[in-house]
Amino acid sequence: VTGFVDKNVAANKAVQFTGFTIAGADVGNYSLISGSAASTANITAKNLTVSGLTAANKVYDGNTTATTNVSEAVYTGLVSGDILNVAATGLFANDSVGSSKTVTLSSSYSGGDVGNYNITDQASATADITPAALSVTANNDSKTYDGSAYSGGNDVTYSGFVNAEDTSVLSGTLVYSGTSQGAISPGVYDISVSGLTAGNYTLVFNDGVLSILVDASIQGGILSSVLPSILSTQYSVNGTQGPPSLDLSEAWTHDVGPGKGTASLDSSLLGRLIIDRTGYRKNEQESI
Known about the structure:
Residues about 220-288 have low confidence and may be disordered. The protein has strands at about 1-5, 10-20, 35-45, 45-50, 55, 60, 65, 70, 75, 85-90, 100-110, 115-120, 125-130, 130-140, 140-145, 155-160, 170-175, 185-195, 200-205, 210-215, 220, 220-225, 235, 240, 260, 270-275, 280-285. The strands form nine sheets. It has a five-stranded mixed beta sheet with strand order 6-13-11-10-7, with no helix packed on it. The chain has no helices and 27 strands. The N and C termini lie far apart (about 110 Å). The chain is an all-beta fold. About 15% of the residues are buried.
């Protein structure tokens, strides 16, 4: 019987021989003095190959760090019963969006039997970096009706830049569109935006709102000069049909209500006049 003192790799390890016996036709002529002996020998490391490590896909975050998974690691060459575990970190070659990108793995090992193996690491894995969402929202804007057409917008607000990035990573030119472009009459209109791109972002464009307001300034009970042009010709006081034109220099002191008096605006406008005992005042963005 022979045996090393332990199973671990080393040079010139002691080997113990025991249980010697003698046999043969002349065995009776000899006497066995010792039943054991000793020598030395080497135990060399066994080759082992690691595979099965993976890297997780991620959303663009501006860095090259990859998340690895070692739970499915395969140890080809591991002796049954030996204890050996792998841990790994990973780095993408760059931080840009792409599919099946190479992730370089750096592995380390633990366990009581690590020293008994020549380990061949798994060098790499592959994973995707997908675009991050970037919201581009048109800022709301407003103006007082002045008869001129609206054009452009009020800039935009961004939400979703990562790793301290900013508009310098964007390409293209911001374009304004929607019902706001060319709008003249009082009302509410969409401010739409488009035209920008970014390689590492998926841009989501959101509309803003343009409000064109009616200026119904009160000056001693007389409406400003802009409102007569938008009053309709249908006008009555105390239920009596009025003339096509209204003398605005004459203050109206009647209550509004059935049989009292009404005023209407052109249907394209959303302004509202509220008439009380002292004259005229404005409440914006409602229909009369």
